[in-house]
Amino acid sequence: MTDRGSARRAAHRPGRALVGSLPPRPRGLKGRRAELATLEAVLAAGQVARMAFVGGGGSGKSLLAAALVHRLRGRRAIAAGGAFWLRVGGWDHRTLLQMVALRLGAPREPLVDSVRQALLARGPTLWVLDNHENDRAMARFFEALEGTPTTFILTARRCLLSGVAVFPVIPPLIQARRTPFPRVRALTRLLRWNPLALDMCDALVAAGAATPEDLRVWLVEQQVARVRPMVHEDDVIEVRLVVDWAWRALSPQARRMLLVLAHCPGDHMSAASLAALARAPGVGGRRALAQLRRWRLVQEHLPGRFALHAVVRCAVAPKGTVPAERYFAHYVALVERHPEALAIEQSHVFAAMDHAQSLSSLNKILRVEAVFD
Known about the structure:
By secondary structure, the protein is α/β, with parallel strands linked by helices. The chain folds into four domains: 5-168, 3-Layer(aba) Sandwich (Rossmann fold); 182-249, no CATH class; 252-319, Arc Repressor Mutant, subunit A, CATH 1.10.10; 324-370, no CATH class. It has helices at 5-11, 33-44, 61-72, 76-79, 93-104, 111-122, 135-144, 195-206, 212-221, 237-249, 252-263, 271-277, 282-294, 310-316, 324-337, 342-358, 362-370; strands at 50-54, 83-87, 125-132, 150-156, 165-168, 269-270, 299-302, 305-307.
């Protein structure tokens, strides 16, 4: 992953907050009641200040974190100063600190002192650092904020950090050998209790797009039970095969929307931007997005803002390409026309800066920098 710290530092202006609103309260969270009660008690008692939810792709880490945050927001000892959600990926520690500074409206320099003073003044805050990838950067980030009244929850495929309480996340109900989705009970073992794959199958059956037997036959024909090496942590065969089944039945517009989301270098995007980038305007585009939502192939991080789960992204990305220039042209023009959109579209503008720098295009770099003035 490229180091985006320099681009962000050049582009940010004080007081402009990165998008990091809490996701909606999870619905239909099944089989996690005991886990949530245990985690809430541990954090409420002040026994740990840093916890990592670690598990495989689609195991439910982010969903569990979202549910826990909504339960803890009323705890004054934990979140009197607010609860925040940041998607951190592999960014360097200075970028992480700047993200926090921007969320708190703190000056950017001197960076560490500014963030520490803002956190001390605000009181207890709760932060979810979603999709953690860079242990070295996270260690330096935590070291810089040691002694502040902050509680951190990481979600990660793996976490090799000392001083962090690791909580393994596995598919719910697997230990009890119970099915979380009765409608697709026959697929539970075949899909090895993977919550993401089962959720999509449940949606397909509920929408009348398939029967459990249709999906079972497909999964068996595609050798879902075969032992094979994974390319990386997001290469989850159970999810990939369900996506492959759905792909065949999707409209061309819906397929293009999935490809746009799979190759998007920024974060979540609006329905209007998704339709424009996928070249799916009007009624056809609205129907395509409705289909993707019904089949639970997309996530709605914020109302009207869409993205793909990392595992679904991995399954979709090889099916086609979307030129990086298309994202650059769309988002830079969007913020030029509507400067007020910068607050919600910042991740896309940062990605545009990365694109301009990768091309060593001075005109593009200056154009992106101008939208921050």
